[in-house]
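In response to reviewer comment 3 from the previous cycle, which asked for concrete evidence that the modeling workflow produces usable outputs, we include below a single protein chain processed end to end. The sequence was submitted unchanged, and the resulting structure tokens are shown without manual editing.
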Amino acid sequence: MEDENYQKLRDYALKLLSFRPRSSREISTKLRQFSAKRNFSDKLVEQIIEELREQKFLDDKEFVRWWIEQRQSFRPKGLRAIKTELLNKGIDKEIIDVVFAADKGKMNEYDLALKVINKKLIHLSHLSTEKKKIKIRDLLLRRGFDWDVIYKVIDSTFEKA
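The workflow returned the following structure tokens.
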């Protein structure tokens, strides 16, 4: 019976990982919920988490790199917002800092912010320049960009106009 429960729990973990990479805490939370509904032992969850780590299916550093890449490609956000998302996913602050420090050259907040507003500017063409600046500022703030980046983007965008 224990082997059967172990296999069900492991299959569920692999199913979750087949959709997208996940942090260790995400998998742990999902497995605990799954096992609680079926009265499986918490010991099984720990075994599976350890096994997934050994087999490199769970690696929080790789998850952070993947998350940053996704955020740069789809629905770009500022570094502060990305860090907050990762903390909410259960990633240790030290891991986040290490990956951010290593990938600093690849992450250019200014370019990301430009990417965000270039799509938005088309929809704002009917507004006055001052209202455009306010809308862009608010959008970039919601997306987690720092003030200095926001001001640089606004200045460079409306300097041309």
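The chain has a mean pLDDT of 90. We consider this sufficient to address the reviewer's concern, and the full set will be provided in the supplementary archive.
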